[in-house]
Every structure is written in C-alpha cells, then in structure tokens.
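Data's thin. Show one?
=====
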Amino acid sequence: MNVWHSLYMVEEWMLTVADVAEVLGTSREKVAAIIAREELPVVPGRRVRVSHTAVIEFVSAMQRDALMLGREPDFVPSIVGSRPFTIVDEDDP
C-alpha cells in the first residue's frame, strides 16, 4: 500500500467486517468473501477495516447491475449511506 493510499484511508470512515455485515443484513463470512472477490481496499490489522466509500461504491454497482438484469438488488445503498458510523480506534481493546 503506498503512502498516499494510506493517507486517504486514514481520512475515510473505516468500517469493520461486522459493521458492514450488520448494515447489509448478511454474514461476516459473506462480507469477507465480497471484500476479497471485489478486491476492496482494506486496512489490515486485528480488525480488518474497509472504507465507507468503497462499500457505497460496491453496493451501488451491485444495485445497478441487478436493475439492468431486471432483478431486485441484494443491498440498498441508501441504507448504507444513511447509517452513522464511528471511526474504529486501533487502540480500542
């Protein structure tokens, strides 16, 4: 990960896998698989974190794809976008 990417990620709202799973109404395992499959940028550590923006972009793309295929979207981006998140503190036990 380059320095500029790291600095950008620090300014973002960072979500844990559990946060994303709760908002999307799915399992942590499915979220981890989505992150790996879609190669969403993450900050590794004790709790892997993904940026709020990356989640919004992914969910929006999934919704567009589903609508183009005439299906109901799996996830609703407005739910993800409206939920207040907190910044994860790495020093939190």
Q: What stands out?
A: The beta strands are 14-16, 42-43, 49-51. Confidence is low (pLDDT under 50) at residues 1-9, 82-89. DSSP finds five helices and three strands in the chain. The first helix runs from residue 3 to 11.
